[in-house]
Amino acid sequence: MSIVSIPQRIRSLKRLPQILKVLLQYGFGDAVARIGLDSVLQRVKSSVISDADPTVVKLKTEERIRLALQDLGPTFVKLGQVMATRPDLIPLELVTELRKLQDKVEPFSREGIRQLVEDELGRPVDEVFSEFDDQPLAAASIAQVHRATLKDGRKVVLKIQRPNLDEVIETDLAILGWLANEAEERIPELRRYHPVGLVDEFEKSLTKEIDFEIEAYHMRRFAANFVGDPDIHVPAVYEELSTSKVLCEEFVDGMPLNHPDLKESGLDLERVAKNGIRLILEQALVHGFFHGDPHPGNVLLLADGRLGMIDHGLWGHITPEQQDILLHWLTAIALKSPSTLARLTLKVGEPPPGFDRLAYERDIRTLMDRYVGVELEELDSASVITDSIEVVRRHRIKLPPDFAVLARATATLEGIVRELFPDLDFQQVIYPYVQRLVMQRLDFSRAGPEVMALVLGLQTFVNEVPGQLEQLLNDVSTGRFQVGVKGEAVDALAQTGRMAGMRVSLAIVTASFILVGAMTSAQALHDRHIFGLPALPFLALVGALLFGGGLWLTFLFPKGPQKIRLSRVLWWRALRRKRKTRR
């Protein structure tokens, strides 16, 4: 590749030689050459580029990728963390390695901290806080956290974005997007991992994560979902002291769920573990809105046994339809139905060309036989969810991004629970909960809007379809709708078409009445009654019988009412006459 073929925006960035240096240092010179950057290397100063470290080259490829991303800085560390959320695309060995990435950097200056807070809040720090700790609790690539005390004595933490972060991210994203395009075009074996799609997904995720107003919204929404829950705590947000670059929230005093002293705390760890499982299920199956990064440091155990959720920068959403698929997926595991699991996976995922469904079902059956009925302490591999996603990846089924994030988040919490209370049997906790959710979805008294939509759709069908059919028949009869064939065969075909249309219409209306009757039977228990029966289901039954009877008549008289013969009505007399003839 000639250096002049590189976009001017990328060529002018001083960051590009730094990236190339790290890639070569960790033994990825072949990838650099295949992308076409070998000629570019000749144009940069030799002092910038160093040969690969012999000791590093001996490491596994996955480990070298992690170390390279670590050395490339905050943006690339975040990229590796996003890649770790896509086990449906990335090999499990690399996903496992990328989860070791440490998002830690040196804190920035104390003077810069106070100045940044004052610029964002528009007031001096001493005017807002009675205490402000200049030493950060934690420092990461996007922000660092400081403790403070409000004038009224409330303890808070401030999440403060690093200076000039927008410029740094814009530069790295420009280079990443260009490198991903070149890699996908020039290295065929990388195309299955969709590097361009991964970078696009990463850009969207990172753009949201650096806007603290979005994070504040996530916290408020999560708190509303679990308001009144005695086992879950979400820190309060102080909106008047928060901006897009500074987030002020309640200080939560608790121990991370991987703290070595946790088992000596005297708390009921079985109850804590069950609450962790319930937290997973309710986020996904009830609210469709879930914490995307629940690692042990973001889930704290409070002194009263509650679980406190912090760091709400990464969240995911799933639709009600996807919630139903997840619920059916768990039910299929309980029923040990690999074919159902395969069907659900294909419904939500995107299989590759030539997908072997039988092989996928076989792998799912093997996985289910390994785990179903096994207690947590007896498991000798990764979690069920992680292994399930690995089967999906092996068969190259692409899942929606939020589904992949949910799988990773769920597997992370599942791992925490396993370490916390190894004797817990997941099935004894999960399936009664899933059963209750299934029964709630079958409670037709909760289906008022759906019933109204069905009735309105049925009304539209009844009002419009007959008129449309009549207009079509009129056009045919008056010559406005013509075909080039005439004769008895055409008349017979038209008659058959009219009868088929009538049968379809009657079948749809009959089925609709049956469905309305079934869905309103529960909620109609306290409504008006007819002949001792609930009114609405009774009327729906009458309608179903009438239209069902009409459907039956179309089969009894297939040529229409103008061809009705008495012998068809008095069928028993015709049968008796036929028997006499035989004698």
Notes on the protein architecture:
- The protein is of the alpha+beta class and 583 residues long.
- It folds into three domains: 106-139 and 142-251, no CATH class; 258-442, no CATH class; 445-479 and 487-579, no CATH class.
- The chain is 58% helix and 8% strand.
- Strands 1, 2, 3, 4 and 6 form a five-stranded antiparallel sheet that branches.
What order do the helices and strands come in, and which of them pair?
Elements (H helix, E strand, L loop, with lengths): L7 H4 L3 H11 L3 H7 L2 H6 L10 H4 L3 H12 L1 H10 L8 H7 L11 H12 L3 H4 E4 L5 E2 L3 E8 L4 E7 L3 H22 L8 H15 L2 H14 L6 E2 L12 E5 L3 E3 L12 H19 L1 E3 L7 E4 L4 E3 L5 E3 L2 H16 L2 H11 L8 H15 L12 H11 L6 H20 L5 H16 L6 H31 L9 H33 L8 E2 L2 E2 H22 L9 H4 L1 H12 L1
Parallel strand pairs: 5-10
Antiparallel strand pairs: 1-3, 2-3, 3-4, 4-6, 7-9, 8-11, 9-10, 12-13
Helix pairs in contact: 6-7, 6-8, 7-12, 11-12, 14-19, 14-20, 15-16, 15-20, 16-17, 17-18, 18-19, 21-22, 22-23
Notable traits:
583 residues, alpha+beta, 3 domains, five-stranded antiparallel β-sheet, four-stranded mixed β-sheet, 25 helices, 13 strands
